[in-house]
Amino acid sequence: MPANKVATAPAPRAGWPGVGPQLAGRLAKLDIRGPQDLVLHLPLRYEDETVCVGIAELRGGAPLQVEGVVTDCEVRIRGRRQLVAQVQDATGSLTVRLLHFYPQQQKQLTVGQRVRLFGEARTGIFGAEMIHPRIRTVGEGEALPTALTPIYPTTAGLAQSALRKLIGRALDSHRLEELLPEAVRRMLRLMPLPEAVRLLHLPPPEADAAALVEHRHPAWQRIKFEELLVQQLSLRKAHAARRARTAPPLRGDDGLRSALLAGLPFALTGAQQRADTQICADLAEAHPMQRLLQGDVGSGKTIVAALAMLRAVEAGWQAALMAPTEILAEQHYLKLSAWLAPLGVAVEWIAGSLTKKQREAAIARLMSGESMLAVGTHALIEDPVALPRLGLAVVDEQHRFGVRQRLALREKGGAASPHMLMMSATPIPRTLAMSYYADLDVSVLDELPPGRTPILTKLVSDARRDEVLGRVRDACAEGRQAYWVCPLVEESEALDLQTAIDTHARLSEQLPELKVGLVHGRLKAEEKRATMAAFAASELHLLVATTVIEVGVDVPNASLMIIEHAERFGLAQLHQLRGRVGRGTAESVCILLFGNALSETARARLKVIYEHTDGFMIAREDLRIRGPGEFVGARQSGVPLLRYADLENDGDLVEQARDLAEALLREQAPLAEAIMQRWVAGRESLLRA
C-alpha cells in the first residue's frame, strides 16, 4: 500500500458456506468477513442461565432466570399498547410486560406454555414484574445449559441466538492455529490461543464466572496480549514504512536560529533545549521525522516549533503550521511574525476569514517561494494552497485533526514527504504513549519557564455566585483582568451561543463599572480579532467567552478565571482553560462554579482538577475516567482501538507486547505478518497514517 494513501475496508463478500449475501452484509457491519472472523468475535459479557430460581426468590438488582407456566396473557391498551402475561411456578406468580412486541412473542406467551424468562425483576403494584425479559419456550424437565451464555456485540437484524449458532458452527469447522512460539508462551505464562478462544465462547460450568466477566481469566489475558501484540506490530510496521520514505535533510548554518535566540527576552529551559536538539537531529535525516512534542499548558512549545521552522528556512525549504481553530492559529501567526519579522522572515496567514484577494496574494507568494513560512487553520490543506518546497509540517493540538487532514498537509510536499512535528498540550500517560504512539518519537517539555506563578483552584457552588461577582470586581479594581467562560450546552452550538450572549448581558448589568467584552465561535474573524486585541491591551476588564479561548490565548495581565458549570467540561478542557491565567507574575485564581446535581463522573473530574495542577497527573486520571479511545481521539485518528485490553490495568502486557513485537519483526518477520493478518486482514485502514 503506498505510504500516503489510506486503505479502505474491502467490500462485503457475497457470502460463504452457510452464510448468504444478506447475512454476510449484516456480519460485515461487525467486521466479520469469514469463519475466522466469527471465531475471533468474542463475547462482551456473559449471562448465567445454568440456574433457575423460584419466582418467590426473585430480588431486584441482578438478572436472574425463572421457569414457569403462562396462566394469563392479554394485550392491554392503557395509554400505550402492551402485552401483559402472568407466569406461575410452585413458589409464586410473576407479571411479564412487553411494551413493544411481535406476534412471535405473543405466541411464546400462549396460556399453558412452559417458558424460561431471563431478566431483572422489580416490584410492581401487583408484585414481582419483569419488563422485556428474554423468553424461551421449553419442555417440562428440559435440562439447563451447562455453560454461561455469551452475549456478543451485534447489529440490527442479527439476533444473539443466530450469532451464537454461527459462531458455534465456525468453532467446529475452523480450528485456529497457535502462532506464538511455545518458548514465548511459556515465558509469558500464556494459554494456547485455540484453547483460550474456545473457553471464552463456551465457558464450562466450573469456570470462574467473576474472572470471565471482569476480563481477569487467563483466557482473556491471552486475548488481551495478542490484541496488544497486533497493535504494536501494526504501529512498528507503520514506523518502518515511514523510515523507508524519503524526506529532504534539513541542515542549516544556525544563522537565523541564533539571531532569534539572541533577540528573545527569555532563555530556553533545559527541556526546550533538549527537545530542540532531538528535533534538529531528526530533521537532518533523509527520512521523514514524525515527532510528538508534548508539554503542559505554558511550557513553551511554540518557540521550539519556531526554531524547527527556521531550520527548514535555513536549508532552503518551506514550513507550515496548522492549528484547529482560527483564534489559536492567529495567536501562532502573531507570535511568529513578532519573532521572525526582525530577522527578515515573512510569515503568510491562511484562514477562511481572508478576502479572496488577500488569500490569492498569499498563495501566490507561497507558490513562487517568495514566502517560506505559512500559518493557518485547515484552510492550509485546501486545494489552491501550494507549498512546492514543504520541508516541515507542524500540527498543533494534533489530536483534533483526523488522519485525512494530517495526510492532506503532508501531501502538500509533493514527491518528497515533509518532516512532521505534532504538538499537544494534553500530556500522554506512559502506557498510552507506548500503545497509541508507538510509531512516533516523543519529546517532552516537563518544566515551565521561570516566572510563572502557580494557579490556585477553588470549587464554588453556583449558590455563591454573588461572592464570585465580588471577586471579579476586586480583581479588576486592582488593575487585573478576568475571563468568564460560559457553560457547554451539549445539545446545540446555537444554545452555546445564546448562553454566551445572555451571560454577557447579565454580567454587563451586574458589573456596570466594568468594560465587559464577548467572544464566541460565531463572531466574524475581524470582530473576534478586535475583541481579543482590546482585551490584550487592557481596554476590557472582563472577557466573557465560550471555549474558543481554550488554547492559544496569552494575556499575562489576566489573573482570574471563572468557569461556569465546570462539571460540563472534560478534564483536558478544564486544564487548558485554567492555563489561560497564571501567565504573568500576579497570583492567579481559577474558580470552578458547579451546579447542584453532579454525576459521579463530574464529581470525580472536579476532584482531580481541584487537587492537581500537573498536566501529566491530570492526564493519567483522565485516562482512568474516560478510557483510551476517547482520550486520544482515536475514533477519528486512525489508531486501532483496543476492544479487550485496558491500558490502566494491563500496562505490564503493553510492555511485554512491545518487546515481543520488536523481536518478531527483527528475527521472524513472516511470523509477525501471519499474526497481524489473522486479526487485521483487510482492515489496514485502521493503521495509523
UniProtKB/TrEMBL annotation:
The keyword Nucleotide-binding applies. One of its GO terms (biological process) is DNA repair. Keywords: ATP-binding, DNA damage, DNA recombination, DNA repair, DNA-binding, Helicase, Hydrolase, Isomerase, Nucleotide-binding. It holds the Pfam family RecG_dom3_C. PROSITE patterns: HELICASE_ATP_BIND_1, HELICASE_CTER. GO terms for molecular function: 3'-5' DNA helicase activity; ATP binding; DNA binding; hydrolase activity. PANTHER family: ATP-DEPENDENT DNA HELICASE HOMOLOG RECG, CHLOROPLASTIC (PTHR47964:SF1). Plays a critical role in recombination and DNA repair. Helps process Holliday junction intermediates to mature products by catalyzing branch migration. Has replication fork regression activity, unwinds stalled or blocked replication forks to make a HJ that can be resolved. Has a DNA unwinding activity characteristic of a DNA helicase with 3'-5' polarity. NCBIfam families: PRK10917.1-1, PRK10917.1-3, PRK10917.1-4, PRK10917.2-2, recG. Belongs to the helicase family. RecG subfamily. This is ATP-dependent DNA helicase RecG. The lineage of its organism: Bacteria, Pseudomonadati, Pseudomonadota, Betaproteobacteria, Rhodocyclales. The gene is recG.
